[in-house]
Every structure is written in C-alpha cells, then in structure tokens.
C-alpha cells in the first residue's frame, strides 16, 4: 500500500495546466525582450563635401504591424547622432505568427526643408535586421541625391 494520496477532482489538473501555460507565457515574454522593431542606431550626418552637419534635428519614423512611432535626435558638433532601440510591446496578439516587416524613415530638418536621407525596410525583429547583422552605424550625406545605398534607399553608407 502506498502513502501517496492522489488528489481528487478536476482542480489539480486545471491548476497544473494553468501553471504550464503561465510558464510558457513567461518564457515567450522573455524571448520578446530580445526582439527589436528598431535596432539601436548611431550615425554621422555630413554635408555634400564631407564636413560635419552639426546642430541638425533628425527624425526617425517607424512602421511595423499596423503600429507606428517617431522619435528625434540632434546632431552634435561633429554631426554624430544616436537612436535607442525600440522593442515590441507585449500583448497576446504579438505571440501570433506572422510576417514582421518594419520600415524606418530618417529625415533631417534643414533650412531648405525636410530631407529624407535613409529609408530602410527589414524583415524580422532580430537585432540589426536592418543591416544584415552588422552594427547599425551609418554615415549619411545631406545636399546630395538619394539612391540605392548600403542599407535601403538614401544617402548612407555603413561605417565599419
């Protein structure tokens, strides 16, 4: 005869199922913290002749899964700027499978008007998905005609 007492009723089974679901959700939320709508980005804005474009306001707009956002930065005296990472919000809908396409548009607020210097698309929420895994560190020119670049459309090249 065994000294183990088996619980009776459905409650222990339901509790075990709820505990398992909870552990799966916690694991999924932890994995989501490693996802990026926008990777951290650093760059330098320069003029057509290569001199630093200091004191310029820069806007990053992003679009992903029906959501969008915008943030701004200002270049320092050397034309350097940075944007922080944007992580997806945690929701039950974010766990559903589907394509994770992201578009980011970077523009400079110049005396002559708004100048888009980078338009980049990525698939997936991996870090540096925008650049194929390389650090998202760019040198971008103002006062030149945008075209196909190292990353997306614009005036930018990757800085190694």
From TrEMBL:
Residues 46-142 form the DUF6795 domain. It holds the Pfam family DUF6795. This is DUF6795 domain-containing protein. InterPro entries: DUF6795. The lineage of its organism: Bacteria, Pseudomonadati, Pseudomonadota, Alphaproteobacteria, Rhodobacterales.
């Amino acid at each position: 005869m065994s000294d183990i007492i088996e619980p009776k009723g459905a409650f222990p089974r339901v509790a075990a199922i709820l505990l398992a679901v909870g552990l799966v959700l916690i694991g999924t939320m932890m994995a989501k913290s490693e996802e990026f709508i926008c990777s951290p980005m650093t760059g330098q804005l320069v003029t057509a002749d290569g001199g630093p474009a200091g004191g310029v306001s820069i806007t990053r707009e992003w679009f992903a899964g029906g959501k969008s956002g915008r943030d701004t930065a200002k270049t320092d005296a050397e034309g350097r700027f940075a944007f922080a990472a944007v992580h997806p919000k945690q929701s039950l809908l974010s766990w559903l499978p589907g394509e994770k396409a992201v578009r980011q548009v970077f523009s400079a607020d110049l005396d002559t008007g708004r100048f888009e210097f980078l338009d980049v698309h990525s698939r997936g929420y991996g870090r540096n998905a925008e650049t194929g895994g390389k650090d998202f560190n760019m040198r971008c020119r103002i006062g030149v005609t945008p075209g196909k670049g190292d990353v997306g459309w614009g005036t930018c090249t990757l800085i190694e």
